[in-house]
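Convert to structure. Protein one:
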Amino acid sequence: MKRSLNDLTAKELFNLKKQVATAKGKAIVLVHPFFDYPTHDTKYTSVIKRILANSKMPVIILGEGRTNLDHVFRALSIERRNNVFSFPTANEDPQLIKHYSGEKPVLERESGELLTMMLHAAGVKKINLGGAYSAKCANLTYDALLSSKRFSKVHLLSGALRSHVSEHNAEFVHVRSHAQEARVSIVERIKQALRRKR
């Protein structure tokens, strides 16, 4: 099953905006959460499963364009709820698929910018990020979300990040958490300064 951004309907995008408003601007973004599924990492799988089954926030899955999410949900023995949205990407790459030319996906060059614009337009203000293959795909997505300066918070979900190289993953989480703390600290200082001016 091939899926591209052209397959996103106005109804899906409106529903995303509505769900974000209900969640007060919060959303979860999972980058390739089913990469090389099934995995032996049962802790990671149980965290992802819990998010998909119980999250009150909208969950945006950046998933390979040919991944059949309904099949994955059945394999995880959970029902796909209406707060789960899928933005199709290339395999092993977080670039969004614009459309297909025959069997070949045509990728969005400014993918990070487009993703941040779509999330911002939906009213997202705070993002919780997770997913597999974190050393590359989640890392690139995190950088795009953070550098856009469109969100007040981009937080890494504990237990919901998985890499094939565990020491790289630990380094990635360590570096990102410091960058995240610095970003949050700057935002808080700006908010305090604005409150004082009023």
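Protein two, convert as well:
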Amino acid sequence: MQINKDLIISGTNMTLGDTAYKDIYSTTETKTNKVWTNGKPIYRKTFEFFNVNIKITDYNWTKHLNLSNISYITVDETHSYFVTTGQRYPINYSQPQYNSSASYRLNVTNSDVDFIFYKTNNFGVSDIVLTVEYTKKITD
């Protein structure tokens, strides 16, 4: 019996070959090696919004992601964050003792996905990095 050297070992990022499975994060749409429950491939894309300069007085900020044909989408919170005063914070953030919080929402339409970032009015935001994973209604 011969085993395919590229067979992925369940529950790990390793293959039976000599090379580890690579988890790629890119600003270009990337097909992951994952499959959703309906059998459709999962894609990943990272958006880098630098110098957005969301003011202290702003409560929300919206950006069109220019993603269409989306069936299911989720934010990879492990690889998403915002920056304020040089410090990096999780995209979904809460610090009750300072009345500070940030959250987000994805609004999916037939033609696009809007990323809406919400925050309290006691800090500004300079940069946002957002990583999403999604399936498509029609696959490539």
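The beta strands are 30-35, 41-49, 60-64, 70-75, 81-84, 87-90, 93-95, 100-108, 113-119, 127-136. The CA atoms of residues 5 and 16 lie 5 Å apart.
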